[in-house]
Amino acid sequence: MHASTSTATxxxxxxTPREAEAIPGTGAHYRRPGWxxxxxxxxxVARLTRMGLSVWGSRVLEVxxxxxxxxxxxxxxxxxxxxxHYLVSPRGTGxxxxxxxxxxxxxxLLLGRRREAWLATEIADEEKxxxxxxxxxxxxxxxxxxxDGVGARSTDAExxxxxxxxxxxxxxxxxxxxxxxS
Length: 182
Description:
Blueprint: H1 9-12, E1 21-23, E2 28-30, H2 35-50, E3 58-64, E4 71-81, E5 84-88, H3 95-102, E6 106-111, E7 114-122, H4 129-143, H5 156-162, E8 168-173
Antiparallel strand pairs: 1-2, 3-4, 3-6, 4-5, 5-8, 6-7, 7-8
């Protein structure tokens, strides 16, 4: 991934999304974060999370890079609904999503010195509505701009319409044999 040298408003303001882009050869949707988000906001949240201070449910996701094989870290929001754990990508099919897919769902979530190994399973678009609704209820102020006006109070049909642009993974402890992947 390359750093942008642009100083457009969207690069300075984390609440202003950059243009959505298609990932070549996939048709996948992704909104690349601007300079401020990459260099200030994400780094600040990641630093606090690594110190053990969760910011609104934040964790640092660590996954093996699909090209380099090196560990890659990014702050994420861990959503819990009735004891189930989920990761949602509000920006679309970003690097962490592609890395998790390439790692067959194996990832670690970090909070302070605590490291938890998880196995992520991607959820089908038609099963995302209530998860996205809960995610937007919790973090709309932070990520709502990436959902094109759809919010927690939107209809099921409106949420279902944006669901294909937002990968969602359910998480199971890595040692849980009931989630073994073939």
